[in-house]
Amino acid sequence: MPLPGEGSPQERRYSRAVGSLQEELAVRTIPELKKASSRAELDAITLLDVLGLDRRPTFILDVSLPPASDDAPLEPIYVNPSLADAKELLGILTGTGHSHDKFANNVQPTSRFKSWLRKPASDPDGALKGSAYMFDGFVWSTTTFDHYLLVSGLQLSIGRTEPPGSAQSQPQLSLSIDPREHNQPKNYPQIPRAPAHPPETPVEQLPRLSPAPVSAAHGRFDITLDPPPASLSDHVRYFRSIDWSTTPLGPMSAWQPQLRSLINMIMNDNNPAVLFWGDEVTMIYNESYVEIIALLHPCMGASARVAAKEYWVHFQPIVDHINATGQTWTEHDLPLFVDRHGFLEETYFSFQFVPVLGTEGQLAGYLQPLVETTKNNILERRVSSLVEIGSQTAKARDLDTYWDLVLNTLIINEKDVPFALLYSTEYQEVAGTSSISSPGSAFELELCTLRNRGSIAVSANHPIAPSTIALRSSTYVFIPYLTQAAKSRKPVYLPFDELKMPDGILDDIDWKGYHDPCRSVVICPVLPTTGEQVQGFIILGVNPRRPFDDDYQQFIHVMSRLLATSLASVVLFDEEMRQKENAIGQAARIQEQLLAELKLTEKKFQRFAERADVGIFITNPTGKYTYRNDAWFEIFKDAADSDDLAGAWGNLVFPEDVPFCETLFTKLIIEKTAVCFELRTRMRWTPPKDPDAEGHTSEHFVWILCSAYPELGASDELKEIVGNVTDISKLKWAEDVQKMRVKSALESQRQLENFIDTTSHEMRNPLSAIMQCADGIISSYATPDGHIEVPSPISYSNLLEQTIDAAQTISQCALHMKRIVDDILTISKLDSGLLIITPIDAQPESVANHAVKMFESEAKAAGVDLKFAVDQSFRELGVDWVSLDPTRMLQVLINLITNAVKFTRLEKTRMVTVSVAATTEEPSSEAGGIQYILPKLAEDDSHLQEDWNRGPTLYIRFSVSDTGRGLSVDEKANLFARFSQASPRTHIHYGGSGLGLFISRRLTEMQGGAIGLESEYKRGSTFSFYIRARRTSSALLRRSSMPRVFPEDVRHRPHTPKEIDRLLNPDRPAPVVRRPTAEQAIHSDIPAEALGHSAESMFAELKRTKSIPDTLHVLVVEDNLVNQKVLAKQLRNLGCVVNVANHGAEALEFLKKTRYWDHSAIEPPAALSNASSLPFELSLILMDWEMPVMNGLTAVTKIREFQRDKLLKAHIPVIGVTANVREQQIKTAMEAGMDDVVGKPFRVTELLGRMRGVVAGIAEERLERVREQDS
């Protein structure tokens, strides 16, 4: 390769042109030198004076001072004012600033510029233009004198509008590039001489030049003559070196003038041209044509058919056409790929095949002049691509759309963009300036992300196209250059041969365009023109069939500017939108806050509305619903399918209420006033269960309370109707119930007053009888003056009979009063929920038979025929032992038998029949038969429910039929109500409190049954009730004890003559019951046989074995002296030996004097001998509960402690005698150590029987233990 200045003639001419231009400019810029009058004045002007006046940036270096390193900054010893004013340019030259070139090369341009200054012959980046160097938009030339280097720059007009740091008025040089490509050395700009006249000079003022005549005086220039001209180019010398005599053209001297003229014309043509002469189409071409034929050169004088046989087949049809027509063939913009710079280059040429005629008009040859149109075609393609980029990206309104449009438009020009990667950037805020942050940015570039479908010719995650690039930690090959591009904000050109690229990184790339691998890429930072922060990078592959020349750079530059402008539009649009948002932001935020609060309130209201029991609705002015909450649909189930008011209300209201609803709607629509009203709808409503509403079977409808108001607009127009609906059915029903309750309360008050009157009457009568009987007894023994006379035997017999009769009357009156008190106590327990049902195994047939026997004497006295019958169903089901509460069952049965006897004793026909039946299905009311009372007032008892779950159940039904007066319809209606009797005069004729049947009803319902009746006035009545029971096995062989507490409402009923006989014959043994348990406490009135015991045989066995004494020794512990005296006297009358104590402490002291106290455990032998006569006999203790000093529970606890400590030799029975007879109280007493509990008041004969039973139970246990020891 020739050195600079010794190259081709074109290069030398270029260098000379530049030198001449610099000289002319230098002279023109120093007008003071032209005004010098003498050589002496000129010599007085120094070089620095001249440089100070020069407008070109100039500086001087001392080359004798070697730099510290190749990258050391330039240290000029002089800088002229023009350069000093351009501080930015000065910084660039010295290496402290940034270049203004379109590209920031991968090697710093300043470093290469410095290398050129030190070694002017080197050309590291192709910027050397002859003796000049292009850097940062200036053509720099140097002059060396002594050890100083003077460097001066001349600004180019390409890519810069004005020199950096200079004023607008500073004159600029207009330099242009030759439109013909490759006529000058590669990448050399053409700098023609400045025009003789400024461009603004009018054409008509230009001097007219007359053409000079062509004459021989100008010399000989024909290169085909001998001797040739003195100055010949290498190509002409090559042309003349051909031995033309060996060609079809013959020796050059024999050529025709026409041929000579054509050859001279071709050789002097700067455009490629070739002449095909003769039939052999011998080739003669100029120097410019060599670049086109490339490797075919040299082929001067050869036949085109031979030298270019592979291509001639394409030209032969053209030749044939010309031969046939004699007309020129023209071809425009023909793409040709020529190798003129070491690679296959994409070029475009327009050419003609011009026929050359001989002297006689025949075809002598073909002239093919070519004009290269590469630049125009490439420019057209690139301009079209740039227009598309600009127009398409301008449509973007956000970054995502922008990046998609960028990639879509780049794909269009795949020849100039055969490869591309599009990355968006992510920044991290930093405190200081980072090495990889954009200038002026407080954010550090951290990550680059490949956009979705953001690549051309390569797939994502290819080694050259990673999805993400971490600029701090990644080993990606382009990272340094991405950082450089981000810093400089300029494209970076990267030839692959200068990069250390990993092996295989370019494999599997589907190169676009001509499918040739790219030799270089350009990294283009994408940032808006209005900002400093890089938003992304485009890595573009350079067209491998085009040189990366100024045009290519300009294309990249313009594309970057277009992208920057479009991006600025996007950013500005985004900023504009942000500003608009900010403009309304303040109000919007306040509005949002208010809306948020409103929404919160609305949500709260909506939640309230959705959860509220109030139905909320909204309609439009026509009455069509636009909103209804769940409560609305819950209320208006029948109108859920209607979507307007008219349809909904038409289904809801009664016909008579339609005009009222229409009036209300008209008031809303026309008068636009709110309305509020109550309305009864056609929807049926079921009220809750209410005992007070029993018997009221009237039909109920849904009542609503509706409020509605019109929502008006700004012009007072109706926008919508908002309303709410409240279901007031329950309120209306409650009002009715309240009215009914008030009425019922008044009625109850009246009944209560009647009950009080009746009760008072019922209690005052027996009280009066008691007082009269007592007075009669007293008066029978004493005279009016108080003296007691000794009666005669006859009068004594009468006196004794009168006294017994009076005592029996007193007993009957007391029992009558007790029944009233017991009924009141039972109803109180029912109301307070304290009455508990306790199921045990029992025989219902035996219990019912026992109830009948209880009334035999009373019925016989009243002349009533009392019978007991067992229904066939009872036998068919084989009912024997069942689990139920026999006491509560007996209580109901006794109540019914009492009423039956009471209401039958005054009739002519007096008959009462008690029957028992069974069924597996729950009995129900029968037409013309028993009508059971519904609905039930009480739920099934929980204890019974648990018991029923343990086995199969059935229903036991008891019926009591009588031939009494019967009941009318009105009397039956109130029969089972509280404080009710058949008629107001019932108690006058029959007595009673009016609570018995009400109590019976509650008790049967608690046992899973019901009570009812069948009655006909004057014909008699049948009362029937059934209860649910569980089948069990036989209990005859059980060894359990009898329950011992009398139920308050049955324990004092009239008893059989057997009991009266027992009262008159106390020595006769009473039935013995076994020692009870707490769970059996309330079943003491049930016969032992009904519960599986044989009391009489057990008592006889114990008497025979002497296990129980004939005479009971009793300790009565009672603080009430009257009760103590009476009880002790009664027990002594019945044959008992009685001792008394006033409280528990005295009872404990008495124990120490009995034979059961072990004196040897705590007393010395002497004391034992003295106390041998002291021990008392003791069978059991009757212990009161509430006493001073020490109560009964504490005393019995102490007794059991003595027993455990062996201070007592045997178990001493203790029976609690108290008025505390609730179940929990009984359980507490039993747990403290009592053996039984008897409630006050009681009959002494019953108490004696209980006493004997407890003693017998203790004795039985002792006997069993002895038997076990003997066995």
TrEMBL record:
Region (Disordered): 177-207
Keyword field contains Phosphoprotein: yes
InterPro entries: 2C_system_His_kinase, CheY-like_superfamily, HATPase_C_sf, HATPase_dom, His_kinase_dom, HisK_dim/P_dom, HisK_dim/P_sf, PAS
CDD domains per UniProt: HisKA, PAS, REC_hyHK_CKI1_RcsC-like
GO molecular function, one term: phosphorelay sensor kinase activity
UniProt keyword annotation of Nucleus present: no
Key words, A-Z: Phosphoprotein
UniProt domain Response regulatory: residue ranges: 1113-1255
Histidine kinase domain boundaries: 758-1031
Official protein name in the record: Aerobic respiration control sensor protein arcB
